[in-house]
Automatic annotation (TrEMBL), chain A:
Its EC number is 2.7.11.22, 2.7.11.23. This is Cyclin-dependent kinase E-1. It comes from Castanea mollissima. One of its GO terms (molecular function) is ATP binding. The lineage of its organism: Eukaryota, Viridiplantae, Streptophyta, Embryophyta, Tracheophyta. Keywords: ATP-binding, Kinase, Nucleotide-binding, Phosphoprotein, Serine/threonine-protein kinase, Transferase. CDD domains: STKc_CDK8_like (cd07842). It comes from the Eukaryota. It catalyses: L-threonyl-[protein] + ATP = O-phospho-L-threonyl-[protein] + ADP + H(+); L-seryl-[protein] + ATP = O-phospho-L-seryl-[protein] + ADP + H(+); [DNA-directed RNA polymerase] + ATP = phospho-[DNA-directed RNA polymerase] + ADP + H(+). Residues 368-387 have a biased composition (Polar residues).
From TrEMBL, chain B:
GO terms for cellular component: nucleus. It comes from Castanea mollissima (Chinese chestnut). Residues 326-337 have a biased composition (Polar residues). It comes from the Eukaryota. Residues 305-337 are annotated as: Disordered. Residues 87-168 form the Cyclin-like domain. Keywords: Cell cycle, Cell division, Cyclin. Belongs to the cyclin family. Residues 313-323 have a biased composition (Basic residues). This is Cyclin-H1-1. InterPro entries: Cyclin-like_dom (IPR013763), Cyclin-like_sf (IPR036915), Cyclin/Ssn8 (IPR043198), Cyclin_C_2 (IPR031658), Cyclin_N (IPR006671). Interacts with the CDC2 protein kinase to form a serine/threonine kinase holoenzyme complex also known as maturation promoting factor (MPF). The cyclin subunit imparts substrate specificity to the complex. GO terms for biological process: cell division; regulation of transcription by RNA polymerase II.
Length: 523, 337
């Protein structure tokens, strides 16, 4: 595609000049970050498409010395084959020969469901209109039906991967993004564990949680059900605390959250349940535990006889073989009732006022190489990935890998240099666990208060290395709390407090003997 | 992707014979231009994936009399070179016990790569190994480059160096459709078409086996660049049926077309199958003597011949290990890679 063969004919001296392909864009800044790499916002310079916004996803070069990242290649090869209005469009592939990294250029989408839900929950404080919910859902299913009929399972559907186009001729059109984990399901499938990748557990289907080794397209439909509920209530439906371990640990808490709402699965309703590894082994006594069925309808505030509830409960069917398919869901009565779904999900044809969603924050300090050009004292506004996981939310971005971004030399605060290195404080995976747990408790305001209190106490602490995910978490919290971090000093202190806090939390975690057998080492 | 109809394979990589010839000619012409300009053709692929042309030889003007200037390979000789390494590719895949699908994918990558480049520009041995490596990655049968290199005692860095240029040359169209699956499908279908008794199931099994071997042969020709995988599979099954005589093949073809309410007629389909057969019949493997001759020519095109060999070697060893630079100059024969 595009410039892929541009090197065939000319041997240019590849010095430090801007690569040719980059010159066709005006780079505006970073809009997202994930384990796969970075996402940038850019504008096309050329006269044909002048000013058109493009999201450029930069893949990190894989570090295991084994060539081009398989995730990147998989995503590219799938995107090359597919074309659908409700699936993100790959415009071009660029190769940066200097560091062998791949850049994928997509049509830019201003919004995503994660941000839209958050906006409604935290800012406007009212639910998303039923027209918009229905239109989102219909388009999501429409895109998914296309993928499934092309034998592709997405495997990582979550609100942040469902993009929504901003102003323009495609306004309000849903685009499914992030095919890094997508699979063709006629290909020999490997289990999730073999992939060694983290997938958000909140949207994970029960058969996978119970250890099913093979995927079917039904796993995507479960995720759609969870997203549907989240669109209605503005809260994730099943917010389990993730057990972070390799390979593929048993996620008891996530199942617990599901069973509490949907009741205990039974062999009558789900005959193949007996063959699932975790059910068979039953190490955690999941079979014996009794749950009071809270009732899905009370959680999502839907009358049990409504079409919306009927559709939702069919998506959240335990038995994957009985779960509604995308094609069947599109035919559901819910979509034939008023209000009818539309192409522009954001603006109803009945022309009630459209909600003004905020645009994506753009971090203008980061260039394509991923290096920050400003002082480290500037807190990184962790904008949201265009087609990736959201920093600080849904647990997608927390890295368990080696830490790479030491930020904030302590000289900035005029402190003595200590030799204490944050890295050897507690194992990083344990930190992550603690952070996750704490996030899920939802008591950020309280935590923030403690943090401020702890500033004084911890001011002697000599922190030099600050892990990147602390920064993300902090800016996440500050955004949630509408707090502005102005002073670099306060910022650094807070980050330290946060680090301390995680260790305190970890202790608590260990004390209540959480369902973790050991703190696994980061790989 | 199950849908071949909307695939990049169908849209971008099925050609007419004319288009194919044009592409081979154009690639050869580009190599010849390089040869005229620089006195050698081999592209250097650096660790970072950048390409560079051979260094212009200062004395090339002086040497430019007809006798000393390297002669480019002919179209036929280029084909022989590809044929040789395609056989090697199958051999390597068999030695690793890779599934058929991987072998087929790697072969198709190799064929597509040499639509863009001449064997004079990229060493087919390296490209062959990289194609296998890439096919493993794509087909989710990941083998590390090191493992692959070790298994055939080759420098794995050469595999990695070429990875990006291979993807680029394939224009990132990496999903390919091999005829093996189609054969499985057609054999299943035949079971319904001519119900056999239980004791005759082995007949279908035999036709299946022979057809797979036929496809192996077809995959070594240009046919995969000219015909969709379904037709390749049918051609293989027809040949196989001629051996085992299980069913009336023409009647079977009619039944397929009528069920698909295809726009094509049986005679069109038969014409395609005949043409695939003729590709297989026309397949020629180069003789030992041919190979020696081609290799001598190729070596001089690569700028590795006699007088400046030492200089080149010296230059190469700056980038690559000694071992690999020696190997680049090996004469391929039936016994080594």
């Amino acid at each position: 595609m595009g410039d892929t063969n541009s090197n065939n004919g000319n041997n240019t001296n590849n010095n430090n000049k801007k690569p040719e392909w980059l010159q066709q864009y005006d780079l505006l800044g970073k809009i997202g970050e994930g384990t796969y790499g970075l996402v940038f916002l850019a504008r096309i310079k050329s006269s044909t498409n002048r000013g058109k916004s493009i999201a450029i996803k930069k893949f990190k070069q894989s570090k295991d010395g084994d060539g081009v990242s398989p995730t990147a290649i998989r995503e590219i090869m799938l995107l090359r084959e597919i074309s659908h209005e409700n699936v993100v469009k790959l415009v071009n592939v660029h190769i940066n020969h200097v560091d062998m990294s791949l850049y994928l250029a997509f049509d830019y989408a201003e919004h995503d469901l994660y941000e839209i839900i958050r906006h409604h929950r935290d800012k406007v404080n009212h639910s998303i209109s039923s027209y918009t919910v229905k239109s989102f859902l219909w388009q999501l299913l429409n895109g998914l039906n296309y993928l499934h009929s092309n034998w592709i399972i997405h495997r990582d559907l979550k609100p942040s991967n469902i993009l929504v186009m901003g102003e323009g001729d495609e306004q309000g059109v849903v685009k499914i993004a992030d095919f890094g984990l997508a699979r063709i399901y006629q290909a020999p499938l490997k289990s999730l564990a073999d992939n060694g990748v983290v997938v958000t557990i909140w949207y994970r289907a029960p058969e996978l949680l119970l250890g099913a080794k093979h995927y079917t397209s039904a796993v995507d439909m479960w995720a759609v059900g969870c997203i549907f509920a989240e669109l209605l209530t503005l809260k994730p439906l099943f917010q389990g605390a993730e057990v972070k371990a390799t390979p593929n640990p048993f996620q008891l808490d996530q199942l617990d959250k599901i069973f509490k709402v949907l009741g205990h699965p039974t062999l009558e309703k789900w005959p193949t349940l007996a063959s699932l590894p975790h059910w068979q082994q039953d190490v955690q006594h999941i079979q014996g535990h009794k749950y009071d069925n809270t009732g899905l309808n009370t959680v999502v505030h839907l009358p049990p006889k409504s079409a919306a509830y009927d559709l939702l409960s069919k998506m959240l069917e335990y038995d994957p073989r009985k779960r509604i398919t995308a094609a069947q869901a599109l035919e559901h009565e819910y979509f034939r009732n008023d209000p009818l779904p539309g192409r522009n999900a954001l603006v109803s044809p009945n022309a009630d006022k459209a909600v003004n969603y905020p645009t994506r924050p753009v971090d203008r300090t980061t260039d394509f190489e991923g290096t920050t050009s400003l002082q480290p004292s500037q807190p990184v506004s962790s904008g949201n990935a265009v087609s990736g996981s959201i920093p600080g939310a849904h647990g997608g971005t927390l890295r368990s890998g080696p830490r790479q971004m030491p930020v904030g030399p302590s000289t900035a605060t005029g402190e003595k240099k200590g030799h204490w290195n944050g890295d050897d404080w507690i194992p990083s995976t344990a930190e992550i666990k603690a952070l996750r747990l704490w996030r899920h408790t939802g008591s950020e305001r309280y935590i923030w208060f403690i943090m401020l209190e702890l500033i004084r106490y911890l001011s002697e602490c000599k922190v030099e290395m600050l892990c990147h995910h602390y920064l993300e978490t902090l800016s996440f919290i500050s955004r949630r709390q509408n707090l502005k971090i102005k002073d670099h000093r306060v910022y650094l202190f807070s980050v330290r407090c946060l680090s301390a806090l995680t260790s305190i939390l970890l202790l608590q975690v260990l004390m209540v003997s959480w369902e973790v057998k050991e703190a696994p080492t980061a790989h | 992707m199950a849908d071949f109809q909307t695939s990049t394979h169908r849209a971008n990589w099925i050609f007419t014979t004319q288009e194919l010839d044009d592409k081979y000619n154009a690639a050869r012409q580009r190599a010849i231009q390089t040869l005229e300009k620089y006195g050698a053709t081999l592209m250097e692929v650096d660790v970072d994936g950048t390409l560079s042309y051979p260094e212009p030889q200062i004395n090339s003007k002086d040497n430019a009399d007809k006798h000393s200037r390297p002669k480019p390979l002919t179209i036929e000789e280029e084909r022989y070179m590809r044929v040789f390494y395609e056989n090697k590719l199958q051999e390597v895949c068999n030695n690793f016990h890779f599934p058929h699908k991987i072998q087929a994918t790697a072969l198709i990558y190799f064929k597509r790569f040499y639509l863009q480049w001449s064997v004079m520009q990229h060493h087919p041995k390296n490209i062959m190994l990289t194609c296998i490596y890439a096919a493993c990655k794509i087909e989710e049968n990941h083998v590390s480059a090191e493992e692959l290199g070790k298994g055939i005692s080759q420098d794995h860095q050469l595999i990695l160096n070429n990875e990006m240029i291979v993807y680029q040359s394939l224009e990132f169209d990496l999903i390919v459709y091999a005829p093996y699956r189609s054969i499985d499908g057609f054999v299943n279908d035949m079971e319904e078409f001519c119900p056999v008794k239980d004791d005759q199931l082995h007949v279908l099994k035999a036709i299946h086996e022979t057809a797979r071997m036929e496809v192996d042969k077809i995959m070594l020709t240009d046919a995969p660049l000219l015909f969709p995988p379904g037709q390749l599979a049918l051609a293989a099954l027809r040949s196989s049926n001629e051996v085992h005589k299980v069913l009336d093949f023409e009647r079977y073809l009619r039944s397929i077309l009528s069920r698909q309410s295809s726009a094509h007629t049986v005679s069109e389909l038969i014409e395609s199958l005949n043409s695939i057969d003729s590709w297989v019949r026309g397949y020629k493997f180069p003789s030992e003597k041919d190979l020696k001759h081609i290799n001598r020519k190729l070596k001089s095109c690569w700028g590795l011949s006699s007088h400046d060999e030492n200089k080149k070697r010296e230059k190469k060893s700056k980038h690559k290990s000694k071992k690999s630079s020696n190997e680049t100059q090996n004469v391929p024969s039936h016994t080594d890679l």
